[in-house]
Amino acid sequence: MLQNSKFRDLVDNVFSNIKCVEVSGQLNEIFSKSNTVNNLYKRGGKHNDTRLYKQFCRGNTLREIKSSEIKFNNKKHNYFEVITETIPLKSEFKEKENISEIDSKVRKIKDKPCIVKEYKSNNLNTTINKLKELNKDYYTFNITKDGDYYSSAVFSYLSKVFNVAPETTKNEMLKDIKLDIITKFNKENYYKNYDYSIKHFKKSDADEKLSCNLPITSKMIKIYGDIFNINIVLINGDINEFVTKFNRNNATLVIEENSKNLVVLMTKQKFIRGDEIVDILQIDKKYDQKELEKSKLDVLQNLAKMKNINIRKAGKTGKINVKKEELITLICNN
Question: Which domain covers residue 23, as residue numbers?
Fold first, then answer.
């Protein structure tokens, strides 16, 4: 009965002030039979007393989750680690660690691994096939557009163990890593600092999809690229979309999308360096100013990211888009 806020208010502020043996006796009897409930989450017009709210939120934002606060059937592992440094030069390749460290963080898979079939395209002139021909260690495989296929494509590239794991195990791994990623994304304010805007997605949508392990959109792949410090290029027909700014010293994930599948460029080695594929992607192509003046802003922004140029700059109250004329000058000069 004391969980009723109105009755509790009467007990604390009215009945307790009545100096009467009978009232005092009845109050003592009520307290002796009741359990005190300390509800820290008061209703404020929103359904804020759910389990998810209590576990993941502080105020209107997600709070940082410590591993000790979450109970798992098995011991929690960090399947992937954030790349904090750019990839070393080729001459230093054998001396420094790289993305393979991600695999060392992945738990051993006891289940029978699934077989990944190599993708073969009848059209040999596609960008993905041209890239594959650059190196004998390159190969491609397809991921069916089912479930969270964009996340599967990213982590299949980052971790060979994830790549061959059974689907049930992959889903469990994705659930943990996506929760870690959205926690870091919010804590370090990536949405503001890494040139996100509502044209990509609403921040609340990213919170929901990553916290609840729902399939992400193609625009949300940028979160993975920024967190893990890798280049991500999406190929759709003749259009190369540079999801992140292209740094030729970083590991590079190339995904070609068609109506049924995602085709991922893989390597038998540790990773694919950005400078290994600059020619096919035409990173160093020179552009004519008059031709660029005919292009729309979103096309120029994509070319700027290809050239590793910032498309937003500091304004009076926050970041604003770099103007079209300035972008054209920067692109022509790089």
Answer: 5-38
In whole angstroms, give the CA distance from residue 247 to residue 269: 19
Q: Which residue has the tokens 């729309």?
A: 296
Residue type, position 193, single letter: N
Rounded Cα–Cα distance for residues 121 and 263 (Å): 10
Determine if residue 55 is left, alpha or beta; phi over 0 gives left, psi from -120 to 50 gives alpha, anything else beta.
alpha
Q: At what angle do helices 149-158 and 167-187 cross, to 10 degrees?
A: 90
CA-nearest of 229, 231, 210, 235 to 220 is: 210
Same-domain status, 163 and 257 = yes
CB 79 within 8 A of CB 106: yes
Shared-domain flag, residues 227 and 78:
yes
Taking the CA atoms of the chain, what radius of gyration do you get in angstroms?
Answer: 27
The pTM for the full model equals: 0.65
Query: Could you please report the per-residue DSSP string of 114-178?
Result: PPPPBP--S-TTSHHHHHHTT-TTEEEEEEES-SSHHHHHHHHHH-HHHHHS-HHHHHHHHHHHH
| Cβ neighbours, 10 Å, residue 119 | 20
How many C-beta neighbours within 10 Å does residue 169 have? 18
Query: Which residue from 230, 266, 270 is spatially nearest to 247, judged by alpha carbons?
Result: 230
Residue in the structure block whose two tokens are 């540790």? 270
Region label for 256, one of left (φ > 0), alpha (ψ between -120 and 50) or beta (otherwise): beta
β-strands 231-236, 239-242: how paired? Answer: antiparallel
Do 156 and 200 fall into the same domain? Answer: yes
Could you give the CA distance from residue 214 to residue 115 in angstroms, rounded to a whole number? 24
162 is a domain residue? yes
User: In the chain, what is the straight-line distance between the N-terminal and C-terminal CA atoms, in Å?
Assistant: 72
In a domain, 202, yes or no: yes
Whole-number pLDDT of residue 318: 78
Tokens (6 digits) for 30: 């009520």
Residue 95 tokens, joined = 């001396």
63 assigned to some structural domain = no
> pLDDT tens-digit profile of 229-258?
999 999 998 899 999 999 999 999 999 998
Note whether 141 and 263 are within 8 A (CB).
yes
Q: Which amino acid appears at position 36 of this protein?
A: T
